[in-house]
Predict the structure.
Amino acid sequence: MYDTILVPVDGSDNAMRAVEEAADLAKSFDATLQIVSVASDQRYVQYGVTLGQDVMESFRERAEEILDDAREIAEKKGAKVETHFVVGVPKIQIAKELPEKYDASLIVIGKSGVNGISRAILGSTTAYVVRHSTVNVMVVDYKKQ
């Protein structure tokens, strides 16, 4: 049913729970997980200072840590995994660009991520992906027990 499953991660509990769910599906369907961390390519202006390439490098370093953690979770469940750091507008990359690039037939995404302030101002990436995705979407909600 699924050959390739796209899983965007940002280090949040919901994202890592999505990796677990996607890994279970991938194992069941003998699918490959394409786990991605997307850094915005938009420049940020805060307190009168424009943040640029140095910030992007720190995004990349943090993304690599998150991707390594996600890979470990998925591989422990026996899933085939590839990881990618991507630069672009996250919601557009996840909903439209990356499913096509990796030939994904399903996106498994956390209900909400790490940046609540940004979500309140800009709108939820997950909500955008659900509304605009070119493939099926499974939303995972992590609840602490």
About this structure: The beta strands are 4-8, 32-39, 44-46, 49-51, 80-87, 106-110, 136-140. The two ends are 32 Å apart (CA to CA). The longest strand covers residues 32-39.
